[in-house]
Write a structure and sequence with these properties.
277 residues, alpha/beta, TIM Barrel, 9-stranded parallel β-sheet, 12 helices, 9 strands
Length: 277
């Protein structure tokens, strides 16, 4: 039986389009807003969601997502409450793929076996662990796959062909192509480089290949989804949240939260329309 991730990509392929993934950080700026944002992403037409696990030292992320993690941690977000958000989301949205993305340190502290069991119980579909190389697969990735979680691998422009088999050995769900050399949200890749990378990776896997890092506009999302199997947008969405926190539209917390959700949903709707067009 196909999982939610497989079903979502198959649906997009049947509609002759790429898939849209959006990243937000759990607890940014608070748990209640995150829950509302997740609902808004579903309504806006995403195909899958990446939920960031806040960490104090997100080394692969640029200033926007670093700041989002700090806001989340300041609001009291933990890995336990992140999983609670995931569990609540799954109850409201039984079919939308949800992938947890982040770093290994919080998971190690939480306990690998406990984290895997709680992720499965919460209805999480997959994991993207940025700083855990394939040489450490036995630590988390293989037990996670055995428990039914997809392990999404990152491939960068500097991942050479001889390295790809090791990276892809335990990969499932989809492959995340990091289209720029550097941190999130700071630069955009040319369409030709995305296309060349896609063809190179496609020779070694049948999994969907999505492009992320540096995608900030509907036009860039559409281009990335045209030259690969989908696009992931993170920093541009996180920037909207940050702007809503820094410049509240209302002194009323609930009203300001609703305004942030509306702005994010409107932007993601534009991304979705561009990809579908």
């Amino acid at each position: 039986m196909a999982g939610r991730i497989d079903t979502a990509f198959a649906k997009a392929k049947a509609e002759n389009r790429g898939s849209l993934g959006v990243f937000i950080t759990a607890g940014d700026p608070d748990a209640t807003t995150t829950e509302a944002l997740l609902d808004g992403l579903v309504d806006a037409g995403v195909d899958f969601i990446e939920l960031g696990m806040p960490f104090s030292d997100p080394m692969a992320d640029g200033p926007a997502i670093q700041a989002a993690s700090l806001r989340a941690l300041k609001s009291g977000m933990t890995l336990t409450t992140t999983l609670e958000i995931a569990r609540n989301f799954r109850q409201r949205h039984p079919d939308m793929p949800l992938v947890l993305m982040g770093y290994y340190n919080p998971i190690y502290i939480y306990g690998n076996d406990r984290f895997i069991a709680d992720s499965v119980a919460a209805g999480v579909d997959g994991l993207i662990i940025v700083d855990l190389p394939p040489e450490e697969d036995s630590e988390l990735c293989i037990p996670a796959r055995d428990a039914g979680l997809n392990v999404v691998r990152l491939i960068t422009p500097t991942s050479h062909d001889q390295r790809l088999p090791a990276i892809l050995a335990q990969a499932s769900g989809f492959v995340y192509y990091v289209s720029v050399t550097g941190i999130t949200g700071m630069a955009s890749a040319a369409a030709t480089s995305i296309s060349d990378a896609y063809q190179r990776i496609r020779k070694q896997t049948d999994l969907p290949i999505v492009t992320g890092f540096g995608i900030r506009t509907p036009e860039q999302a559409a281009e990335s989804a045209r030259f690969s199997d989908g696009a992931v947008v993170g920093s541009a969405v996180v920037d909207i949240i940050a702007d809503g926190v820094a410049k509240p539209s209302s002194p009323d917390a609930a009203e300001n939260r609703a305004a942030i959700v509306r702005k994010v949903a409107a932007f993601v709707g534009e991304l979705s329309s561009a990809i579908r067009a």
